[in-house]
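Deliverable D4.2, example record:
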Amino acid sequence: MSAEATNPGAPIRRRGRPRIDLRRLGRVALGPVSRDRLPDAIGHVAEAHRAHHPDADLSVLRKAYLLAESSHRGQMRKSGEPYITHPLAVTLILAELGAETTTLTASLLHDTVEDTEVTLDQVREQFGEEVCYLVDGVTKLEKVDYGAAAEPETFRKMLVATGDDVRVMSIKLADRLHNMRTLGVMRPEKQARIAKVTRDVLIPLAERLGVQALKIELEDLVFAILHPEEYEHTRALIAAASAGSAASGDPLSVIAENVRAVLRDAGIPAEVLIRPRHHVSVHRVRIKRGELRGTDFGRLLVLVGEDADCYAVLGELHTCFTPVISEFKDFIAAPKFNLYQSLHTAVVGAHGAVAEVLIRTHQMHKVAEAGVIALGNPGTADGAPASMAEPADGERADPTRPGWLSRLLDWQQAAPDPDTFWTTLRADLAEDREITVFRTDGGTLGLPAGASCVDAAYAQYGNDAHSCIGARVNGRLATLSTVLSDGDTVQLLLAEDAASGPSPDWLDHARTPAARIAITGWLGAHPEDAQRPSSSRPAGSRPGPQSMNPARPGGSRSAGSPATVVAGRPDAPVRLAGCCTPVPPDAVTGFTVRGGAVTVHRQECPAVARMQAAGRTPVAVGWGDTAECRVTLVAESFGRPRLLADLTEAIATADAAIISATVEPPSEQRVRHTYTLQLPDAAGLPALMRAMRDVPGVYDVSRAQHPAAAV
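Output generated by the structure prediction step:
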């Protein structure tokens, strides 16, 4: 594997074990095999497997190897090797990563059903249902075209199978790694095509499954094929740095020795290793910094026994060295979406040399390297054989499944068609960084970098997020378009009216497939809402910097309501003034505006006096027999958590619908809320105002009396 993957401290390859010549072993395997010992070719797999699982039963591996070798006998790879060398290599990769016996058995047999006369029924009969399930899953993956002409439905089924049992994709990733290692026998154009698919689809999948050991070697192999000049330049830089370190001393080794001394003096048992960066990592650092430092070719890895020891090491390092605070990240308290846990920091050593340091337990390191492969069988916590029984909902229980795969299973079911699923999946795979935001109930949400409150709402509430009206980010009111940062605390506010729906412009702020698919599905089911511009939508419209439209109104009465009539002109268009929003039985008067429409004001509205002073002639108006009305109320309150949610709940309980709401920035701990509401009957207005005043923190509720614009 790559330099980073083969570090002596990594558990995936034991110290001093050379890379195995699988071509030689494959040819040796063609000879007779003794009944009482493992074939030579599989013996190396058994050695790697026993390093992780000392009590493993190897008889099933011997049996699987004999079936694979006999069924593939006579088949050759394009490189001229016996074909059996390929399943052997794939199985060895997985064994070194710590895969359990069932996965290795399926790996040995993964091409038999596709390329030989062996049937799934034979596999089931000889090795059981679980091995058969895995072999069938990998066989289906072999038929998937990952390129531009990929069949979205096939790929969709493949990912669903992966979500049902991550071992299927684990075998596929190891299969691709060995094929990439031997890609040199193919034409350059075919190498480039396979490398691009590996880069665009399989490397992101390896990242999401947490299998870093596979991911980083795949990255280097792809880098060498698609960017040969940059690869050679990077390789030369690494070789020069290695030669320079041998001649004049390695600054990273000096810092490592100082760290060992500090931890030894502190009485903290720890193993301090130097982790060489792989080629792509060095290339990225060079692009970022422009010029590489001597310590940029590797990082320090500190391995300890317990979680608490990680923080003890961090404290000693930050006490005895100068820390680079901007480099500190705590992925133990908030693990990454792919199960990764570690503390990251950087310290300054002698002569200003800066070393990046990773601090983790041995178990964290195992998971960091091998991801889900290191966590055993689905359905069990300790790697013991799992039952194939399925829960009532048809989904196999799998505690090792990362959050990304769980989310994938949810939103793939909501995708309206395979093409939508494929498009959103490719966009999701292109995201190379994830943030963690905290919920007010103590939970966390994993979201892609650049995600907004819209994404958080759908991640937390699913389709119930259609009625989201806003959010609080770090305790402050925020619009749904607000972009979240790593470590933010977000509280989503939902309207009481479950019929509320999203605005089309929510799609402008949605980054996650779950959000985009859910919003698109709702808009497709409500075309009349999707057609209206967001500025006129009463429900869930994207709020401006200080406003929200939190709930769908109970009726559809517009501002030109028939609740008012003009004396002598019963057909005249009428609208209620926004400055005072009169309701029955208010005394009202009207003024004619452009186009012959009549604007109706309450008689005590300041705008009436101004217009009369300007010589405008009032028009006699009166209330019709429609009880429904619209009114604007102003609530004055002290700032406190959940105030907005409690006020909207009080309004909904009073059978009023919110047309729009504006919340002004707090001033001296006081907050001013302005609501435009739709009431089924004006007689309920006094009770509504009392209900709002009863909300803790609200000290006044009044009818709006703000100046009107010119009419």
